[in-house]
Design a protein that fits this description.
Shape: elongated
CATH topology of the largest domain: Rossmann fold
Number of domains: 2
Helix content: 55-70%
CATH architecture of the largest domain: 3-Layer(aba) Sandwich
Length: about 270
């Protein structure tokens, strides 16, 4: 299946580069087509093996079996009617192609209203660490998408990290704990970096210490046998420095604040969805 990408910005570009790199590592040559209104972005990606720049949006739609729409919600409404019109010229029911949307708040029902009731949709919620191959993507599969087609879509996003399959209503929760959460992690690391500098470290060393510690902690959750609660207990020596830090965090309602923030993102996602 030929895969097309509409949008070659940060996220779209990261996915194209990741997929092309993964294919190269397997000794394969992908067949990817890219279009962006900023032609220089598409041309830059076309320098990768197996990637071509489409001449225009019509060409992209015509050639794509799977069309990944990597556009932000604020430009989505302008693009979707054009995509629908081009697609229906060669497939009146729009049942041949699989349309993949990474836009937050755009429901499968909304897309089917625009593209056709028989159109095949997969909604995905990636996050920005995909740009360094450590993304986490949740996928919600619409009706009519075959196992083969769905696996082809998952393979694209596995090239830039890990994937999980969820129901569409669960994408709101995904937004709060995965889509938005890199921002929470950056704030946490920023606070540690500032503390390090205030206590005599240079900024570069403080950044390395904070970021590597967060990375190591995440790997212990993913690769170890203990859950986060037990891991926290393990690192808190009685009467020690970590125990003292954890005491302050608990007194300040650290975990409640994180949950409140994540729930705010979930609620905003629900309000945005159309």
């Amino acid at each position: 299946m030929k895969i097309g990408f509409l949008g070659a910005g940060n996220m779209g570009g990261a996915i194209v580069r990741g997929y092309a790199s993964a294919a190269k590592a397997r000794g394969e040559t992908p067949d990817l087509l890219v279009f962006d209104t900023d032609g220089t972005k598409a041309d830059a990606l076309a320098e990768l093996q197996g990637v071509r720049a489409a001449g225009d949006l019509r060409a992209l739609v015509d050639e794509s079996d799977i069309l990944i729409v990597a556009l932000k919600p604020n430009v989505f409404d302008a693009a979707i009617p054009r995509i629908a019109a081009y697609a229906k010229q060669t497939d009146p029911t729009n049942a041949r192609r699989v349309f993949v949307s990474i836009a937050a708040g755009i429901s499968i029902a909304y897309l089917q209203e625009a593209l056709g009731k028989e159109s095949k949709i997969v909604r995905v919620m990636p996050n920005t660490p995909a740009m360094v191959g450590e993304g986490m993507t949740a996928l919600a599969r619409g009706e009519g998408v075959s196992d083969e087609e769905y696996e082809a879509v998952r393979r694209v996003f596995r090239s830039v990290g890990e994937t999980v399959s969820v129901t569409e209503p669960s994408l709101d929760a995904v937004t709060g704990i995965s889509g938005s959460s890199p921002a929470y992690a950056y704030m946490y690391m920023q606070a540690l970096i500032e503390c390090g500098v205030e206590n005599g470290l240079c900024e570069a060393d403080a950044t390395l210490l904070a970021a590597r510690s967060a990375l190591g902690a995440a790997r212990m959750v993913l690769e170890g046998d203990a859950d986060p609660v037990q891991l926290r207990v393990n690192v808190c020596s009685p009467g020690g420095t970590t125990e003292e830090a954890v005491r302050v965090l608990e007194e300040r309602g650290f975990m409640d604040t994180i949950k409140e923030a994540a729930n705010a993102a979930v609620a905003k996602s629900k309000r945005m969805t159309r």
